[in-house]
Structure formats: C-alpha cells, structure tokens
Design goal:
The complex is a heterodimer of chains A (163) and B (313). Chain A is built from three helices and nine strands. By secondary structure, chain A is mostly beta strands. Chain A has two domains: 83 residues, Aspartate carbamoyltransferase regulatory subunit, N-terminal domain (Alpha-Beta Plaits), CATH 3.30.70.140; 48 residues, Roll (SH3 type barrels). Chain A has a five-stranded antiparallel sheet, covered by helices on one side. In chain A, strands 6-7-8-9 form a four-stranded antiparallel sheet, with no helix packed on it. Chain B has a five-stranded parallel sheet with strand order 7-6-5-8-9, with helices on one face. In chain B, strands 2-1-3-4 form a four-stranded parallel sheet, sandwiched between helices. Chain B contains ten helices and nine strands. Chain B folds into two domains: 138 residues, 3-Layer(aba) Sandwich (Rossmann fold); 155 residues, Rossmann fold (3-Layer(aba) Sandwich). Classes of the chains: A mainly beta (163), B alpha/beta (313). Chains A and B meet through loops of A and α4 and α7 of B. The structure holds zinc ion. The site of zinc ion has 8 residues of chain A, from loops. Chain B: Keywords: Pyrimidine biosynthesis, Transferase.
Chain lengths: 163, 313
C-alpha cells in the first residue's frame, strides 16, 4: 500500500490511535463511518471477550477518511471477508501473527450471502417465524432477497442481522 | 418439464411453456382420454388466503384427471391458527399427497416451502410475488386468440401490486412481443420488475399513462382491477379508476381483432356491453384454467412417477 500511510510501521501519529495487535486481523480501508457495521456483520460485540480496536475517520490518501478495525486473536474466514465486501468494498484484510502481517488480501464480492442480512420487506416469508435462513443474491449495485426478490441498493448495513 | 416445482414464470423457457400449452390443447380436445390418467393420486390444496376460483379450478383439474384432492380448509379452522409454521405444514401434508398447491399471503412463501419438500409444489400465488399457473392460462388464451409471436400487448390497470401482471410480463419475454404497460403513475410496474424485464435481451417494454396512444396498435388488451383500498381517499380513486375503464366507446379506436382479457373477478373495469362482442375473451380465459392446470398436473405427476421407474409416455 504505497499509496497510503501504513499504520504498522509508518506514521507514529496513527499508531497511537490504533494500537498494534499480536495475532489476529486488521481490516483496513473501511469507508469512514462503517467500522461498527463491520463489527456487526462479523458478529463481534465484545461479549466473547475479544479484544477489538477501532480507528474511525483516520486520514487516508486513498479514501480521504477511513476506518480501521483490529481484532486480536481472530483470523477471519474467507466467508466473513466476502460478506464484508457488501459494506466495505475497498477493504484490505491483513492477517497478523506475532505482530507481522503474514497475509494481505482484498475483499471479493460473493455471489450469495446467507444468514447475514435480514429482508426489509415485511411481506417476505423470511421475516416471520419460519425456520429459514435469509439468503441474498449479490448484484453489481446491491443485494436481492432470494425469497421475495426485493432489491436493496442503499443502506445495506441497516439490514445486518443483529442477534 | 424438467422442473419439480413451479414457483415463478421466470423459470419457464419458451419450450416449457409450449410443452404445457400443447398438452393443454390436447387435453382440451379430448378430455375423455385423460379421465383416469391419475386415478388414486392426491393433490394437497393449501390455501392460506381465500381464492375460490383458483382453488376450484385446481380441484376440477385434478378430479378430471381421475385423481382427488385433500384440502387444508380455511386458515381459521386449521393448525396454522395455533401458530404452526408453513415449513411444518408442508412437511406434514407432503406425506399425505403426490403434489401440493400453495397460496400464501407472504412473498417468497412458495420458494421457501419448496425447500422443505420433495413432492412437486405449484405456486398459486405468494403475496405480491408470483402466480405462474395464471400466467400459463393467460398465455394459452393469448395463443388461441392472437398467437404468441409478432404480438403487441397492452397490460393495463394496477401494475404495481398485480402479481399476475408481473408473471405474465416475464413469460412474454420468451416470445416476439412488444409490451405496453398502461397505468396511473402511482400504480406503475415496480422497479424490480422493470429491472428484471430489462435483463431479458430484446424485451420490448414501454410504459404509458394513457390507453389512447397505444390502443389502435394492440392485438391484446389485458385489463386488471384497480383496487379502491390502494388509494388514500375515495376521490383520488374515482379520478383514476374512470380513466382505465373499457366500454364500447373506448373500443371504437381499437382493431376489430383486439382481444380483451381480464384475470377476473372484475368490478367495473370492463363494461358488460363488451361481454357479447368478439373482443371479450375473459370468460374463455377463466375456463382455460382447467385444461391448463390439468396439463401442468399431468406433466408434473407423470415426471414424478417416471423418476420412480414407471413410464408414462
Ligand atoms: Zn425477502
């Protein structure tokens, strides 16, 4: 990321705001203001004792303002990373072991996301008491419920299931 | 047909549609030939929403094939009232029957239900979603009256909430048709449906607020009901509803061969004076529900049998 401040071994200013982690995942280049949604989509609320640091609206050359999420002791699965793409399409994922970034990759948009978003259509069968997992097809510019076919383009983050 | 379930008209190819319509025509021509074809078979009718017409048409179709139906009865008198899920209901009734017909007020209900069962499921309407068997009988009627290629069709009325309209529009993209959608602005096609229609290559779609400008070019005019309850006040409704009513004066501008359809019941969208003219195809359309549903059931039940080793064809 030559085009950006590197918060691991570069700009000391940023280092103070978001501390280094020993083992885990750094989710970088999240659009400003989306950090909490990133945690929601990953189902991280701190109740499991995870150590989480968040930097919000940190200056970035690439995004002007970006958020950074660092999760200690947890390496994200590819599924989780894919789902992140819905709200953080430019995110980079850094897997850290012993303070070193050992893997770095961009998120990719999946074809389908299951059990992550809840349908905003109150007439949709998935919004009742049925034993069904929500499923959304990922479109170029949004997501679409596989059951009622409702298309959501904006505010995808507001559909994140919270339970 | 290749499909185990019929959930939406989107899943139907031109070949699928022609298979069903051809079979329906055969059955229509000689009903006696299929009178015992599915003797001993049972069709489960699960209507979570009242629909006398669609239900009776399925019941008639199954009985004319020599089979029988079991009916869940009204929702009020069933275990659904006690809070049983749809997923549980279909899994139980699947064990009693050879195929299921589902009408449900929630969109996506048929898709979900089909994921829980192995017997064929026919979607007879899921909320504002789909109604593919209506579409097939509409197509059958259009084919009989005007043909399905080189067709100019106007679809008019409540295009926003009309699931029969959406299903028909998708299916027509399989054919060489130009579709004109005529409605008040507030009842235009949902953007999702327009999105889907534009995904189809070569789909020719135009939207209008007035019937006048397209009427003379139409081969078929498919009229749907504008429901009073969609409007905030009676005056708004009256203003709009009047503009989308058909009478003999309206049809003076139309081609002599224009076919007028309506998925009934109607209220006052089509004046009774049209009933006696050659334009009127809506009662014929309603009657076509039986041979078309017979054809569908025959294809699905024969397929299911074929998988078990028996042969039918
Ligand atoms: Zn939905």
């Amino acid at each position: 990321m030559s085009d950006d401040h590197d918060h691991h071994d570069g700009n000391a200013d940023h280092e103070l705001r978001v501390s280094k982690i020993q083992d885990g995942t750094v989710i970088d280049h999240v659009h400003g203001g989306q950090a909490l949604n990133v945690l929601a989509i990953l189902g991280i609320d701190g109740s499991e004792g995870e150590e989480v640091s968040i930097g919000m609206n940190v200056p970035s050359d690439r995004l002007a303002r970006k958020d950074i999420v660092k999760v200690e002791g947890r390496e994200l699965s590819q599924d989780e990373v894919d789902v992140l793409s819905l709200i953080a399409p430019d995110a980079t994922i850094n897997i850290v072991r012993e303070y070193e970034v050992i893997e770095k990759h961009r998120v990719e948009r999946p074809d389908v996301v299951e059990g992550v978003l809840s349908c905003p259509n109150r007439g949709c069968i998935t919004t009742g008491d049925e034993p069904v997992t929500s499923r959304f097809e990922v479109l170029e510019d949004g997501v679409r419920c596989a059951y009622c076919e409702t298309i959501v383009r904006d505010e995808i983050a507001s559909l994140i299931e919270t339970n | 047909m290749r499909h185990d379930h019929l959930i939406t008209s989107k899943q139907l190819s031109r070949g699928d549609i022609e298979t069903v319509l051809d079979r329906a025509a055969e059955i229509d021509a000689d009903r006696a030939a299929v009178a015992d074809r599915h003797a001993g078979k049972l069709l489960g009718l699960l209507f979570f929403e009242p629909s006398t017409r669609t239900k009776m048409s399925f019941e008639t179709a199954m009985k004319r094939l020599g089979g029988d139906v079991v009916d869940m009865g009204s929702v009020e008198s069933s275990s659904v009232k006690k809070g049983e899920t749809l997923a549980d209901t279909v899994r139980v009734i699947e064990g009693y029957t050879d195929a299921l017909v589902l009408r449900h007020p929630k969109q996506g209900a048929a898709t979900m239900a089909s994921e829980f069962i192995d017997v064929p499921l026919l979607n007879a309407g899921d909320g504002a979603g789909h109604h593919p068997t209506q579409t097939l009988l509409d197509l059958y009627t259009i084919r009989e009256n005007a043909g399905l290629d080189d067709l100019t069709i106007g679809i008019m009325g409540d295009l926003k909430y009309g699931r029969t309209v959406h299903s028909l529009a998708y299916a027509l993209t399989n054919f060489d048709t130009s579709q004109h959608f005529i409605s008040p602005e507030s009842l235009q096609l949902p953007r999702e449906v327009v999105y889907d229609l534009h995904q189809q290559q070569d789909a020719q779609i135009r939207e209008h607020e007035s019937l006048e400008e397209v009427l003379p070019s139409l081969d078929v005019l498919y009229v749907t009901r504008i429901q009073r309850e969609r409007f905030p006040d009676e005056q708004e409704y009256q203003k709009v509803a009047g503009e989308y009513q058909i009478d003999s004066e309206t049809l003076e501008a139309a081609d002599d061969d224009l076919t007028v359809m309506h998925p009934l019941p109607r209220v006052d969208e089509i004046a009774p004076e049209i009933d006696e003219t050659d334009h009127a195809a809506y009662f014929e359309q309603a009657h076509n529900g039986v041979p078309v549903r017979m054809a569908l059931l025959d294809l699905l039940l024969s397929d299911a049998e074929g998988q078990g080793g028996e042969t039918d064809e």
